[in-house]
Amino acid sequence: MEDSGCCYNYTKWICGGLLLALTWVMWNIAKRIIDMNMLRPTVERKKRIREEGFKALGRKYGNINTNTENIHKLSDQQLIQDLQNRKLTATQVLEAFISKALQVHEKTNCIIEFIPEAHKWAKELDDRSDIKGPLHGIPISIKDNCDIFGLDSTLGLAKKCFNPKTEHSVIVKVLLDLGAVPFCKTNVPQTLLSYGCTNPIFGTTTNFLNPTLTPGGSSGGEAALISGGGSILGIGSDIGGSVRIPCHFSGIYGVKTTKDRLSPTGFTPSLPNVIGMAGVPGIMSKNIDLLILCTKLLLEENRQHHYDHLALPIPWNNKPFEEKRKLRIGYYTSLPYFPVLGDTEEVVVNAKRALEKDGHTLLPFQMPDGFKMMELMAALSFADLGTHLCKNWEGEVIPLALLPNFLAFQLPHWLKKVVAWVMELPIPFVHSKRGSVFVRGRIHTFITYIYIYI
Question: Is the pLDDT of residue 6 over 80?
Fold first, then answer.
């Protein structure tokens, strides 16, 4: 009788625990549905305004005429020269690129919105008696998270819609000083933390070269637009490959500078206050010479320092472009954590051979343990236990590409340990050493948090 009574008690506790867990799950599901319904009108309104804006621009600039075609046939250097010599007006060039950008957008869904002020900026340049700067009249595309006065920086989140910025980013201010005309903002993956490019507000951006593939992320909209010729110069941002990966996927050039070389002030971050990992602005273009020119102009004459005193006042160094000294260059062809796909290794080897043919010395080397690096990256990125991301995700529709991240943050600590352990087992469709490392990185973050605060 005592055994049956003990069994009864155990059963009662187990059933009670399961009921409590089920209640918790159902409560969270109900709360999430309520929150999503509250944000749905915001998303629908944003979509409607965007669609109406594109239709209006399409009626005005949808058909590419002879003048537009002639502008797009010019090399980037010739375009700059014709604007400097006033053979072309800033307005003519702007309208030509809006027309082309609409075509590329129709194929790839790469643009969030066109910047209303762009026409005013172009007209002001045309009304001047002098040339404003070395980028006079050059249209430039801007990634969603780079702030423009009066426009949103949404990161693909509904709660950030209709929350216009009160100031330009430092990079945009300097570009305007140089005479450039920022003319559109481009799409990103939700929260920026994805190698794809999709969010529930603006949809999925596809690769211009192959619409069945992604352009990469998080500067995917920029990469697609530039790859298709809708922009010759764009501003992105990069923390873990967000400029470099889209450029690689889309056949264009990009540069991620050292921290604080380009001012990050005015970029809306996905992970604010992360220690040890810094997102930085990046520059993207189809033309390597134009990429170099833009970087040089942003760094020269302490232009950024006028707006951001923390921007490093290190002058542009032109020596590497002038001297003939042969270089020692290290290279590697793959990483255990990220094994290369397709012809990537062949491209690296071909580049190695070309550099060797030019007289440079190429030395193979192995990167440090990639699995340990990713574990450390996860621990640094989510040192707040994902609090900021979870707050951003409240009430949001989660894209399929980000669903594993979202679910991982909702799991209790003990269940994360179980998931990491199961992923290391040799079970088909479940085994993933990479996934296990990423989850374990978050577990170590939790342990560190407990150690510090208890």
Answer: no
